[in-house]
Specification:
By secondary structure, this protein is mainly beta. The chain is built from 1 helix and 5 strands, in the order αβββββ. Strands 1, 2, 3, 4 and 5 form a 5-stranded antiparallel sheet that branches.
Length: 55
Amino acid sequence: MPLPEKLLEKLVCPKCKGKLEYEETEDRLVCEACKLAYRVEDNIPVLLIDEAEKL
């Protein structure tokens, strides 16, 4: 189940405050500026820098 569009509009990268892109197939949010990917678990974004995947 994809994240609601209204939620995606409000979410920003916790590190740089930049825009996050939602990759539905991978179920993650990606910050291109920081080269970090934040996972989404049970439709809840896990926006913890320490748990982000480096791209």
